[in-house]
Each structure stands twice: as structure tokens, then as C-alpha cells.
Design goal:
2 copies of one chain form a homodimer. Chain A folds into 2 domains: about 80 residues, 3-Layer(aba) Sandwich (Glutaredoxin), CATH 3.40.30; about 100 residues, Glutathione S-transferase Yfyf (Class Pi), Chain A, domain 2. Chain A is of the alpha+beta class. At the A-B interface, strand 4, helix 3, helix 4 and helix 6 of A face strand 4, helix 3, helix 4 and helix 6 of B. Chains A, B: Belongs to the GST superfamily. Zeta family.
Amino acid sequence: MQAGKPILYSYFRSSCSWRVRIALALKGIDYETVPINLIKDGGQQFSKDFQALNPMKQVPALKIDGITIHQSLAIIEYLEETRPTPRLLPQDPKKRASVRMISDLIAGGIQPLQNLSVLKQVEEEFQLTWAQNAIISGFNALEQILQSTAGTYCVGDEVSCPQVFLYYRFKVDCTPYPTISSINKRLLVLEAFQVTHPCRQPDTPTELRA
Amino acid sequence: MQAGKPILYSYFRSSCSWRVRIALALKGIDYETVPINLIKDGGQQFSKDFQALNPMKQVPALKIDGITIHQSLAIIEYLEETRPTPRLLPQDPKKRASVRMISDLIAGGIQPLQNLSVLKQVEEEFQLTWAQNAIISGFNALEQILQSTAGTYCVGDEVSCPQVFLYYRFKVDCTPYPTISSINKRLLVLEAFQVTHPCRQPDTPTELRA
């Protein structure tokens, strides 16, 4: 099925890129990383070459099987359909619905509001509060949902379509979210999360490496 | 499979609610509508009863098969998995990826930025420009993507996971988007789009009915 290694256009700190890196790692798919620095050179995502690849001018984008897919969840669904083992979605349609609901809540309800392009439109002094508000309002909902869906991980005991919380970038206090926090802790120790961590990417600046 | 009719919690003007109404109509699924007025009574989505149903305090939510699903795309994926005929996603995984990429672009890249709760955080005089910027930036990308994926509709010639553009609410000039505009025109004449149109809902105010 594969013609050459898949290429992932990624930024070390982008949580949507991280989500795809985790999926690739969980499925054991070997790939090359092309780093797109969202800040350097005024933002490499705005280059003509990258825009041709992803007109949304965002990472991640994945070149695979002769096509280019962007939008992290669309990429993960494609990987799941074409490389089903090990699976990232449960077998039961109701549980699959829970996974997608949680993924959409994070990827559609929280993250878009903290994107660099959006934050730039908010006055600098309010940017942190803006990002925090989005996270807090999303986490209030997520905590409540997870209380009825979670086992070891978000939905039952299988690691599913991975979710990653970059809340620490925006200094959100997670004390009110015990379920989110404990699932996050259990995920972060897994190998697929360790090797794909923002502090361990080809484009991670030396001072942020760990 | 069904225990009673599905119940859709919907607001006539919510484009995410409309997306689910279209999916239900295309699949011929009979359902009841419970209108949630996002403005009246300070927003009925904030009521205790509704929050228990959807902690994100957003429409749509669908009660079906004994569960409640929110997030429009998660709902549509569930309908597709449990009621596969007629299908809303193409059979070919690459085309399915295109549909999901386009859906995520709209539902995750454009719509969250125009949500009532987000617009409220923007100073009133800038709200229209804010919403327009989000639509224009998304449409610039979408137009380019559709030029390579579209046939009669967004991906080839089958109506897929439905996308709906409420750009007219924010007075965006669509001249630069001939592909988006012509697909939209072709969709709007379909029966499933006609009967589910915001101007024809149980909760549509008389002055907006058509």
C-alpha cells in the first residue's frame, strides 16, 4: 500500500501534530518528519510550497499513499481505516461515538481558540486569559463527560484516538479536573507518548529538550 | 435497534444543528425536535437540565439508542456506522479522508470562531469583522481544496457528510469562491436540505419563516 515512507509536516509544540505523532507511534508506522516552524521566517506555514500542500497553512499534514491529508482527526481516521491494527477506536459503535465526541470537543471546541492565528487577533495583554477561558470552559465539560466514559483512559481501558492537553503552556490550574489529570498522567508514561513528546522532536530547540 | 424515536436538541439557526438535521433527513431517520433557544431566557443551553445532557452547553445533541451524543461530526459518524444506508461517506478511504478533512476544516477551523460564546468575548464593534475573518480565511483554503476534490458536490458526485455555510449571516462576499458557491447552490435545492433549512424549523420565528 505504501509508496515510500509517509512524511509528516509537524511542529514540535503543536498539539495537533503531537496527536498525529502519537497515532503513528501507536500503530508502529515509520515516517519522516519535515519540521514546519510556525514562528521562524514569519511562519514557514505561509510559504508558497507549504500552502500548496495545506491551504489552511496549518500543521500537521501527512503525505501518505500518494495523497496529502490535513486536519489531525481526519488523518487519524484514515490511518485507522487503512492500518486497523492496533486499533485506536473501540469496536462498539457507542464507545466509538464517545471517543469521537471527546476528540471533537478538544480538537473543535478548545484547540481552535488557542491557535496562533487566532491569538494574534486578540490584544496581547488578553491572550493568556483568552486561551485559559477556552481551556477552562472545555475542561469543565470534559471532566463531566469523562466521569461517565473513562476507565484507565478516556473511554474504557483502551488507549483510543489520542488526546493531548497542552494546558501547561497556558498555566491552567488542573486541580478541579481530577479525571482529566489522572488519565493524562497515565497516558504520558506510555512509550508512544514519550517518543513523540514535544521535548523530543527533531525540531525541538536545545533549551526545551528533555 | 431503536428504543423510541431519536430526539434532536436543536436551534433553528445553528449550523451544526442543521448539519445533523440534514444527515438525519438524508438517511430517512424519523426524529423529534426539542428546540433549545440559545438566546431566550439568557440561553436555554445553560439550564441545569440541558447541561446534564451536554456539558459543553451547545447544540446539537442527539438522544438515540439509549445514549446521548453531541458534537455534530461525532453524531454523523455514529449514524453512518449504525444506519449505513444511504451512505454519507464514500467507500474509498482516500475519498473518505477528503470528506473528513473538509468537514473538520469547517467544523473545527471556521465554525468554533463564530460561536455565540466566542463572539461574546470580542468587543461588539469588532464581532462582524472577527467572524468574517474566520470565514474568509477558511474559505480561501476550502476553495483551493474543493478545486481538486469536487465533482457535483464536495468530494466527487455523491452528497457526503453534509457541510453547510452560514456565511450569509455574516455578510461575506462569495464572489472569490466560485466552487464553494456552486456546490452550495446544488445542495440547497435537495429535499434533505430544504426540509431541514433554518427557515423551516419548529422553532423558526414567524418573521424568518419561508
